[in-house]
Structures are given as structure tokens and as C-alpha cells.
UniProtKB/TrEMBL annotation:
Residues 526-536 have a biased composition (Acidic residues). It comes from the Bacteria. Residues 13-319 form the Amine oxidase domain. It comes from Terriglobus saanensis (strain ATCC BAA-1853 / DSM 23119 / SP1PR4). PANTHER family: UDP-GALACTOPYRANOSE MUTASE. Residues 521-544 are annotated as: Disordered. GO terms for molecular function: flavin adenine dinucleotide binding; oxidoreductase activity; UDP-galactopyranose mutase activity. This is Amine oxidase. One of its GO terms (cellular component) is cytosol. Pfam families: Amino_oxidase.
Amino acid sequence: MAETALIIGAGPAGLTAALEFQKLSEIKPVVLEASHEIGGISRTIRYKGNRMDIGGHRFFSKSDRVMEWWLEQMPTEAGADNAAAISYQNQSRSIAGMGDSSDKTAEEDDLVMLIRPRKSRIYFLRRFFDYPITLTKDTLEKLGLARTAKVGISYMASRIAQIKPEKSLEDFLINRFGRQLYLTFFKSYTEKVWGTPCEEISAEWGAQRIKGLSLTTAVKHFFKKAFTKKESKDLSQKGTDTSLIERFLYPKFGPGQLWEHVADKIVSGGGDIHMGWKVDRVVTAGQRILSVEAINDAGETQAFPADHFFSTMPMRDLVNAMERGGTAIPQNVKEVSEGLIYRDFITIGLLIDKLSVTEPDGGLLKDTWIYIQEPDVLVGRLQIFNNWSPYLVEPGKIWIGLEYFCYETDPLWTMPDDDLKKFGAMELEKIGILKADGVLDAHVVRVPKTYPAYFGTYDRFEELRAFTDSFENLFLVGRNGMHKYNNQDHSMLTAMQAVENVIGGVTSKKNLWKINTEMEYHEEKGDEQEIPDAEEDSMRSKVL
């Protein structure tokens, strides 16, 4: 009888694992998804002909393997002027046994990737500043002489005397930008996101998300752009920090379109995806998982036995399900699990005819994201969906997303939808972005446990990790599955690596935990590389 892999969660990590099992083995994937939507936090929300991307998902990775994987599912539209994308695309099609690159435009075919320009800015003092911040003439003029002098002095001081050891995120940011720049452009936004003072957040968050970024790298990037005569068309952007990339792939109808397509491929390939089934119990025997018991909306329960188990559900929920299934949870593990903290997320879509702020030529702002640094409003970030893909928006309208970070226990989370819509519109009017009476329609989406936090009991995380890793056929993958603030591509890489571990008979999880948001890869095309030891590294891509 064929082996089965039970995968908890139909987000990027779970669906990647399922498709990889089908591509590389005879192991049948069975996916359980608690909701009725595909894609997890990478799903696309549909509302009256408009679409919302929760948090924004740039399809860009330093991993060639991930880029090839995406383009194997969805090719770039015809006429896309990007040699790197075509190279990735042709390589993925060669692997899959497909033909040449797409000859369909986005107008002719829905299943295509667009190549989009990236522009993000900071909104502070009711003005726009470059993101990442650079000390250009424009920035200095907007800051004013006194504030600029403080920024310069504090930055030089940080270069001379680094804070060691870096214990907090505040230490991490001051070391790279100086205290004054940290207070001006980082502290307010970061504390909006986490609801916790920066001095109480682990420095590991910075290492996870912005390891390679500093004021020096941002300034170097600015001058490199300024003195380069021709804009680079290289989508790979291998020499550029991820925070500074300028072009990215994007599915025509948002990230959910790609994951819905992947789900269809899994089902057509013989895999199972069960929607609306929430894991209630995980049954173990010794150091193996035997089965998962799930419950559906009608209250029916079903047991799903399998040979291999992948989990993308929050680690706290997983441990609780194991305890309900009869597993003896050590007291210290229980303490760490219960002490993990998750930050929740609300996005409010507003449909409007125009914004109060424009580009110098009077046109729509070109930003994908705008970071709201203003301390007198709660909104943390603003998306302009038109700039992610024009196909997300009703023709002739502007569709924006207001992003709020909170806890499920906060008044903001429980505020009625109609009140939230008015609240969001009034906040944007307050800081001069739009007129509240110009809002034509609005939609609210709440997303629990969006951001695994690096405080609470996180300083004891290794105790929890050692416990879950001890179950030889249990593999934790993805953002919430590993309580690790991964981007979409690195969540996918954890799934790819875990599949390879299963196929190779590797029960150690060390190589999964090495996959980090800002890691670099030895993936030079055409290179003949020795396959590294699967205990420590990927069989496809060696990690530095």
C-alpha cells in the first residue's frame, strides 16, 4: 500500500509540500485545511469585483529553485522584458517537460505572472520619505537642519561605539541606523506592528527580517542607482538586499490565484484536500505520530492516519492537540508553548475615486506599500492594490488597503465592521491621504495569528523545538508551523526540504531550522555541485 503524508494547512508551505510529494515520489498527500479558503495568509480576498492581497506578497526570492517553481506554475506574460525571468521560466519548463515560454499576454490569459516595479515609502511629518531611508538631499530638506544634525551625530556615534551584545531589536536597529534615525523612522512603526516596546523584542527579529540592511547599504544602493545609466532588467537581483529589490513577479489576480492553481494540480494528480476540517487531536505512540483527528463545521469527526505528518498550524495549537490526543507534554514544554505570542492583523479595503496626495505629475501614487510612521494614528501600513496588479481593481477606481496590527483581545479587533470602516477612513483623512466622504465602498478582513512574535517565552523556544523535533515522522514547516517570521519563499523552502528529508529517510530536523529569511544560496545555474549531506543541507541547494 502506498505511503501517505498528512499535511495540516493549505497555505504556501502545505501546498508546496503536497505538490513536491507528487513530483518526487509515490507518497500521496492529504491536506487538511480548517478554513474554506486556499492560500493561508497568501490567499486573495474577493469583494465585489475587487481583490485584496493580505499584507502584500512580492513573488521574489534569492533562491533560484523557488523562482523556477513559481514560473513552472505560472509563466510570465508575453512581452515581459526580463531576461532573468525568461531564463527561470525556460529552466522550469525544461524540468517539467513543457514547451517554450508563454506567448499569451495578461489580457489574453489569466494564468500569467506580471513583472511589477517595487516602490515603497515612509509617510512621516505628513511627507513622503524613501524606504529604506537614505540621507539624500530630499530627505535632509524634509527633516530640517536640527533633526538632520542629530541624525548625523547619532549615526557616527553608533559607528564608533556599537552596542554589544545586541540583546533587543532596539539595539539591533541603533547599531545599523543610529539612535536618532531609529527614533525617527523605526520605533513608532515597529511598535505599532508588535504592540511591544522595541527594547523588549529579541534582536533575532532583526536578524530574521533585515539582517543585511543598514544605512550604509541603503546609501550605497542609492548611489549605485544614481550613477547607473540604464536600469537593470535582471529580475534575480542577486547582489541586492531583499529590502532593496526593485522588480518582482506577481500573479495577475493576486497570490491566491497561484495557490488555488497549485491546489487544483494536487487534486488532479490524485492528492486530497479537505476543506473545513480543523485538527482537534494528534495521536502519538512513542516518538511517532499515528493519526490526526479533525472536526468539520457540522461537528463530525474523522481520523486521518498517515505515515508522515507535516504541520503548519501554530505550535501552541499543535501541542494542545497532542495533549488532547493523549501525549504526555512535559511541564517546561507546556509553559513555553502557552507563552508563545502571536500578533493579529486587520486589513480594511477602501474603494475611492482619488487620493488627496499624488505624484508630482498629478497621477496616482506609484507605491505598493506606504509605511505610516505618524504616531497620532493606529494604521501601520497602506497598500495601493492598483500598483500590485491593475487586475485587482475595478476599472477607473482606486482600491487601497489599510493595515492594522493588534491582538484578538484589543478593542480594535472586536470593533464592528461598519465602525472599523469609518475609523480607517477618518485616520487617513486626519493625515491628509484622502477625504473620508469620498469612500465609495469598504471591506474588512481579520486574520488571527499572522505574526509569530519574538517575545513572551520565545527566549526558551529551544525547549519546545527539541520536543517537537523528537517525533521522527513530524515535520514543522512554514511561518506559524515553526513560529518563525518567514517570508513566503522561505516557508516554501522549509516544505521542499522536509519532503526531501522524508524521501531520503532523514528524521533529523536540523536542516529545516537553518532555512532563514535572509540566507544566501549556492545556486549558480550551470554549476555542477556535489550533493551535500541531507542531514545538514538541502539535496538541491547548499545553504551558506
